[in-house]
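Figure 6 in text form: structure in, sequence out.
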């Protein structure tokens, strides 16, 4: 009896598979069922990567769904619009990178070393992305913010919020350097903004010229702006 039962089960399974392959449109990929959390995470990651690599306006919802291997209906189950997805994708990316910034700007590191480590972090991240995409990508937050600053207030505000978080890390290092007497940055808050703006300018130059060599001057430029030379003199 077991032999015939096994043969019957096998025949049923093959029949179900044959019907499935026949009914499914030939051009529709056979997608595996995924947990809702996995689907959402894929959409967030793919959206961030595509927008940073290309631009917000050049990336469509269809493009994101295709790259993430997610049905369009699933997209709108999680997000009302591409704009909402972009805001959440950039916030998610910040949550992923924040532990590394916490490590770089840890009080256990001397203040000036924090600034140097941050410069190397920026440089290394740009190199990794350039190797992956074949061109310089620049700052993801500034790129998105400048593209949509006059068109989408939620995206503009999110870009500003994340950039301000980065600036606060720099300000904390400058304040500690001032307290221990290793630098004379003047107003730490204002200097932190100038340092961040200088970094953005260098990234923009590197992106336009598709040349990362300019970032070799990032660390000495930032250390100089922190007031180290002025103090030594």
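Output sequence:
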């Amino acid at each position: 009896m077991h032999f015939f039962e096994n043969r019957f089960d096998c025949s049923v399974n093959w029949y179900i598979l044959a019907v499935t392959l026949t009914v499914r449109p030939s051009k529709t990929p056979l997608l595996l069922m995924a947990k809702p959390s996995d689907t959402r995470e894929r959409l967030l990651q793919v959206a961030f990567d595509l927008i940073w690599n290309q631009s917000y306006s050049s990336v469509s919802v269809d493009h994101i769904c295709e790259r993430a291997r997610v049905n369009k209906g699933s997209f709108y189950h999680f997000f009302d619009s591409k704009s909402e997805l972009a805001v959440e994708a950039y916030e998610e990316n910040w949550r992923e990178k924040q532990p590394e910034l916490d490590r770089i700007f840890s009080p256990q590191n001397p203040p000036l070393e924090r600034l140097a480590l941050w410069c190397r972090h920026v440089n290394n991240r740009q190199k990794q992305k350039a190797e992956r995409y074949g061109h310089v990508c620049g700052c993801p937050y500034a790129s998105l913010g400048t593209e949509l600053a006059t068109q989408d207030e939620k995206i503009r505000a999110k870009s500003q919020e994340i950039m301000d978080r980065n600036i606060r890390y720099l300000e904390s290092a400058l304040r500690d350097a001032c307290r221990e007497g290793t630098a004379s940055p003047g107003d730490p808050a204002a200097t932190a903004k100038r340092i961040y703006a200088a970094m953005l300018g260098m990234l923009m130059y590197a992106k336009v010229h598709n040349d990362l060599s300019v970032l070799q001057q990032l660390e000495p430029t930032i250390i100089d702006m922190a007031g180290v030379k002025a103090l030594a003199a």
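Caption detail: The CA atoms of residues 4 and 102 lie 64 Å apart.
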